[in-house]
Amino acid sequence: MESELTTFLTTIDTPAFRRDNLAKVRAKAAAAKGSGSSQLSVSVPAAESVDVALPTTHLQAVVSGK
């Protein structure tokens, strides 16, 4: 039986989850920039690898057996 931690790490350690999360961050940055109340400026190339931005942690490696 998988522990809750293993289940959680398995869920967040997928390219689809990372892509969706990055899209949400970009949307929030665009909304903040458009509101004029924030000076937040985010520039992330579309071709950037999410794996580079979010490296595997030691805990994720241990849980996944890498």
Overall morphology: elongated
> Main β-sheet, in a few words?
none
The secondary structure category is mainly alpha
Strand content: under 5%
Structure annotation, total helices: 4
Total DSSP E strands: 0
Mean pLDDT: 74
Low-confidence stretches: none
Distance between the termini: 19 Å
Order of secondary-structure elements = HHHH
> What gyration radius follows from the Cα positions, in whole Å?
15 Å
Detailed description of the structure:
By secondary structure, the chain is mainly α. It contains four helices and no strands. The chain is elongated.
How are the SSEs placed, and which strands pair?
Blueprint: H1 4-12, H2 15-35, H3 50-53, H4 58-64
Annotation keywords:
66 residues; mainly alpha
Structure at a glance:
This protein is mainly α. The chain has 4 helices and no strands.
